[in-house]
Amino acid sequence: MNDSSPAPGAPVLDVWCELQCPDCRSALDDVRALRARYGDRLELRLRHFPLEKHQHAFAAAQAAEEALEQGKGWEYVEAVLGRVEELDRRGEPFLVEVARELGLDAEEFDTALIDGRHILIVDADQAEGKAIGVTGTPTYVIGGERLDGGKSQQGLRERVEEIADRLLAGQA
Predict the structure, then answer these.
(1) Please, are residues 64 and 80 in contact by the beta-carbon 8 Å criterion?
(2) What is the spatial distance between Cα 103 and Cα 77, in angstroms, rounded to a whole number?
(3) What confidence score (pLDDT) does residue 31 get?
(4) Spans of the chain, pLDDT less than 50
(5) pLDDT of res. 63
(6) What percent helix, strand, coil does the chain show, rounded to 5?
(7) Closest to 117 (Cα-Cα) out of 63, 54, 52
(8) What is the strand order of the sheet 43-48 is part of?
(9) pTM given for the model
(10) Which pairs with CB-CB distance under 8 Å and at least 24 residues apart come from 152-157?
């Protein structure tokens, strides 16, 4: 999932994430900092990896895709992750409420969750994640390197920046 158009040939940072995951909420600061530092020089993509232990994660991933379609993907992701406990408690009605708060078409969200129009994207992300060895969230993949933030996020942003800088320098 990517809201803005990155520069052609920009390095890609895949962020494997789950919207009911407290560790992903902790990683938000890193994601914001990376977006601020690199802007369109780095393509930041949210990849879905809903975990079975979180009952609303699959619906939340679909909702994030609907938000992207309506033009506010990352904004929606940040709003939901910022209130993980509420998602735990309230489930799908909460996902629709956040859409309404952000000025998105809440009716369309409701319909998207019912008709499952984004399920294939979420399934494909999850399958790809499993294939490359993602086991938990958040996990970052950049320049062919997988960095697991589920165990510890200590020093992860610096590592991502190091790889991104190296990839960007290689383009010059």
Answers:
(1) yes
(2) 14
(3) 87
(4) none
(5) 97
(6) 55, 10, 30
(7) 63
(8) 43-48, 12-17, 139-142, 145-148
(9) 0.89
(10) 153/23, 153/26, 153/27, 153/30, 156/27, 156/30, 157/30, 157/33, 157/34
